[in-house]
């Protein structure tokens, strides 16, 4: 056997047994892979949980229910009632009230809220920053950061005085950059008749979160962006301006802030601005409008779409629009962002005859796929290169999910027992309540499951079931019946959060109900988990609130 010689003529020393594996392990560690790190353990645990959730013996039991005269919100295992004055943990089998605040006045009413979670791997100035908190916006233009578990006020920022009313919170970059948007400024009718002009339409205040820091405030002025602006948003570093005629225009927000920022400000620091002296973020001065757009910024992209419906996603980048004519409602065009070219098979039309339109969006799993939902059909589409033409993409079906309508016969001609032929004067709609119809489609990212809610309502009694599908192939893995009657005329939200299912229902006259289901692992048959029959309920009062137990 000839000896091994290394480069330069040196004799190579034979590797010790297992040395190759050690080198691979060191390389994997350098790239962030390590068999004992927390991320690997967490992924394994979620994989096990997914198997437990989907196995046949696992049931979801309606453990408790509560009702409210005000909207109910859910965020990461916490249920908020009474305009965020009451917080209940949904993790325990019995409702556990985390905090209950006294009823607030109308001037303290919360307009909007966002859940803020601690970033990983960063040093933060305060120990409270490492725990989840709730950013809330009040009707009096106060921005508060509350402890998610106790409701304690951790930070207070006063936005501005009477020049505008801030109403909406949203993420520019999730858990990193937050945007506070005002309601559209509109003059009273008397002022308009008197000839008074209102040039500022919206205000936007932008913050870096944890630690909370002020980036800047800007105004959307009709002198710069035009008279027909109807809405505005900031998302993923893009300023999105929408117009009444269906036009959508995109601008680089970072470039705008760098070009037009007059002076940076820090929260809590004294300032002298336009003759006013005060403290940034404190009452009564609030925040200065320090980004003054004096000229039309460079346009990145524009498109015309019905009802300003416009989405960007996929790989390579594509966008989805509906041609800007009412006759095209329900028709979606998928085009390349690079050159506006329509993808092959890029016109998606389910040709639904229904009261509620179908909807389409890019899959939230970052796979670049597209989900198209109709009354009885869910299509998951993918982008792929056209054969022999790498410059063009085509839309292909990855898989589809079909509603169970085996027993539904929509025959225009029927024959009675006596032999008389009866012709129907009309056909059923595709979303007729008596046929199983998809109402909600969602994605559980931690378990990698696609969830769907399908409903059938005959008379006043509506039956709904939540189904879990394999996100990769669409295979049905689990079906969970929802025991409460589902009325298709009401507003509904369903949350699937690992081992928890939550159904929030809004009835007429501002009556809200919350049904909490939790995972139960039992090999024995548990009829009460899946039966629609009436079961005995126990009522319990906690913190002045009534809860129902089964």
What is the fold's blueprint, element by element?
Layout: H1 19-30, H2 38-54, E1 58-68, E2 73-75, E3 78-81, E4 86-89, E5 96-100, E6 110-116, E7 133-138, E8 142-147, E9 153-158, E10 166-173, E11 177-182, H3 189-193, E12 200-208, E13 213-221, H4 222-225, E14 229-235, E15 238-243, E16 247-252, H5 253-260, E17 270-273, E18 276-279, E19 299-304, E20 310-313, E21 318-321, E22 331-336, E23 342-349, E24 359-362, E25 370-373, E26 377-386, E27 389-402, E28 413-415, E29 421-423, E30 437-444, E31 449-458, E32 461-470, E33 476-482, E34 491-497, E35 500-507, E36 511-521, H6 527-530, E37 538-542, E38 545-549
Antiparallel strand pairs: 1-36, 1-38, 2-3, 3-4, 4-5, 6-7, 7-8, 8-9, 10-11, 11-12, 12-13, 14-15, 15-16, 16-19, 17-18, 20-21, 21-22, 22-23, 24-25, 25-26, 26-27, 28-29, 30-31, 31-32, 32-33, 34-35, 35-36, 37-38
């Amino acid at each position: 056997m000839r000896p091994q010689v290394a480069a330069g003529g040196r004799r190579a020393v034979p590797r010790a047994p297992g040395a190759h594996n050690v080198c691979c392990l060191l390389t994997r560690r350098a790239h962030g892979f390590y068999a004992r790190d927390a991320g690997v353990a967490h992924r394994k645990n979620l994989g096990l949980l997914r198997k437990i959730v989907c196995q046949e013996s696992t049931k979801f039991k309606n453990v408790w229910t509560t009702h409210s005269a005000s909207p109910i919100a859910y965020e990461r295992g916490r249920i908020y009632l009474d305009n965020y004055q009451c917080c209940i943990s949904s993790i325990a089998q019995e409702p556990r009230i985390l905090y209950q605040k006294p009823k607030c006045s109308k001037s303290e009413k919360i307009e909007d809220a966002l859940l803020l979670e601690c970033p990983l791997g960063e040093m933060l100035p305060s120990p409270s920053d490492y725990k989840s908190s709730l950013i809330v916006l009040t009707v009096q233009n106060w921005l508060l950061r509350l402890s998610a578990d106790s409701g304690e006020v951790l930070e207070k920022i006063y936005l501005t005085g009477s020049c505008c009313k801030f109403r909406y919170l949203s993420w520019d970059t999730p858990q990193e950059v937050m945007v506070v948007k005002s309601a559209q400024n509109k003059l009273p009718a008397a002022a308009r008749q008197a000839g008074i002009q209102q040039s500022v339409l919206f205000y936007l205040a932008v913050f870096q979160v944890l630690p909370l820091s002020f980036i800047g405030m800007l105004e959307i002025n009709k002198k710069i962006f035009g008279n027909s602006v109807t809405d505005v948003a900031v998302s993923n570093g893009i300023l999105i301006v929408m117009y009444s005629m269906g036009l959508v225009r995109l601008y680089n927000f970072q470039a705008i802030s760098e070009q037009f920022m007059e002076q940076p400000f820090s929260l809590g620091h004294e300032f002298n601005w336009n003759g006013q002296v005060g403290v940034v973020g404190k009452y009564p001065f609030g925040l200065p409008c320090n980004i003054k757009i004096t000229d039309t910024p460079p346009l990145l992209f524009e498109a015309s779409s019905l009802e300003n419906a416009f989405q960007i996603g996929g790989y390579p980048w594509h966008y989805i629009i509906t041609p800007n004519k009412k006759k095209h409602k329900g028709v979606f065009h998928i085009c390349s962002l690079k050159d506006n070219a329509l993808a092959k098979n890029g016109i998606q039309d389910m040709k639904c005859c229904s009261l509620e339109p179908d909807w389409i969006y890019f899959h939230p799993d970052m796979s670049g796929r597209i989900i198209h939902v109709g009354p009885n059909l869910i299509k998951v589409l993918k982008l792929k290169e056209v054969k022999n033409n790498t410059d063009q993409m085509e839309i292909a079906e990855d898989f589809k999910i079909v509603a169970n309508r085996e027993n539904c016969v929509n025959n225009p001609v029927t024959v009675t027992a006596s032999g008389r032929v009866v012709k129907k004067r009309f056909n059923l709609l595709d979303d007729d309540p008596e046929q199983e119809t998809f109402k909600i489609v969602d994605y559980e990212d931690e378990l990698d499951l696609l969830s769907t809610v399908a409903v059938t309502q005959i008379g006043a009694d509506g039956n709904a079931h939540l189904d879990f599908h394999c996100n990769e192939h669409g295979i049905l893995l689990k079906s969970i019946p929802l025991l409460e009657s589902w009325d298709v005329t009401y507003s509904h939200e369903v949350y699937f959060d690992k081992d928890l299912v939550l159904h929030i229902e809004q009835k007429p006259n501002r009556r809200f109900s919350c049904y909490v289901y939790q995972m139960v692992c039992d090999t024995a048959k548990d009829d009460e988990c899946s039966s629609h029959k009436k079961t005995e309920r126990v009522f319990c009062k906690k913190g002045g609130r009534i809860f129902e137990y089964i």
